[in-house]
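Ticket #4471: structure export looks truncated?
Reporter: QA, pipeline team
Priority: medium

Steps to reproduce: submit the single chain below to the structure queue and open the exported record.
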Amino acid sequence: MDTNTKRPVLRIRIVFGDEEMIGPGKAELLERIDRCGSIAAAGREMSMSYKRAWQLIGTLNAMFREPLVDSTRGGPGGGGAVLTETGRRVLALYRAFEADAAAAGAARLNDMQALLRDIPDGR
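Actual output as written to the record:
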């Protein structure tokens, strides 16, 4: 009897070079920036330091021909950040790649999952 009911999850990292990659963490950061309008707020939601969030965005902005995130400094009116058109496109392409890979590998993942050991009490 198959008691392994949790679905496998693909976590895809696309590596373009030694320091140039995009994966689930950077994609999530981009999504949260898009929703929050702030790099700092997006980082906080991910339990990520302000410095780390900015470093990741700096890396992403340097990787592509055009920046993925456009930010304005804080001040009396407050700062903020938005995804650029390129940022939205890169994020959409990454998420589409994830979906394509999951669909293409679904049968193999199911077969592999069927071979997992049954673990009592989910431990």
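Status: closed, not a bug. The export was complete when the record was re-opened. Leaving a note from the reviewer for reference: The chain has one domain: 14-122.
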